[in-house]
Amino acid sequence: MRNQVLLIGAITLCLGACTGAKASSVAKTDSTAQSASASTAAAPVAPNVITVHAKDFSFATPTQIPAGLTTINMINDGPGLHHVEMIRLDSGKTITDLEKAFALPASPPAWAVFTGGPNAVDPGKTSSATIDLLPGNYVMICLVDFPGGVPHFAKGMLMPVTVTAATAGPPAAAPTPDETITLTNYAFALSAPLTAGPHVFEVKNTADQPHEVAMIKLAPGKTAEQFLAFMAKPAGPPPASAVGGITPFTGGPTYFTADITPGNYALICFVPDAKDGKPHFMHGMTKTITVM
Q: Which CATH class is domain 48-291?
């Protein structure tokens, strides 16, 4: 009898040890799986990316894109300057309504919401910007009116774009900026001195009307005033090159990238003022920067 009791006790101890080892193994497996799951969940989601080919005078790009943070890479295939402006049409308005509104000598209506996009670059170059798109109907448009003073959308450079509801999942993470540009009526403020090299710019508009960042690199010995005079009346070689920025928007933040090389740069806002219709640079919204 004593031997039977000892045998039963040994079996019980063995079963307990085996069960404990198995439970420990399962717990470790679950912990590892949870850690992997948490790591996967924590991985940042990149913004949606679309490519836009711009030329005289049209865009080639998808006409339906999902909502959320979206990086727009505009390739300038034309012989002159082009940019991308995304305008959201609220209140059930259409592209025809927008064209009619732009034909009037008045500020754009409230239902035309300027959300930005990549600003102008020289022919053959690429301009990149990241903006947050809400679901709705948009118009992709080029507001550039150089040369000749006729905006490119009046020559057919606009197209409807539908932004559809985003699929389920975590939201995309915003780009990590190393420089912030704050826009006010009527000034540019940089968070730090601009240095040579590739940069991710965060742009915030704290004003009550749209503003933009048109970034240009001045030719040696040239000034922003000479560039603006050239834009008004072209003569001879351009005194600057366009390197991108953000087209008109309200609120923000928005983001753009640019590879900065040593030289003199200018930030300019060409947006017509909501009160007097004069371009904002005539209100002093320019900034010259020297990069060593």
A: mainly beta
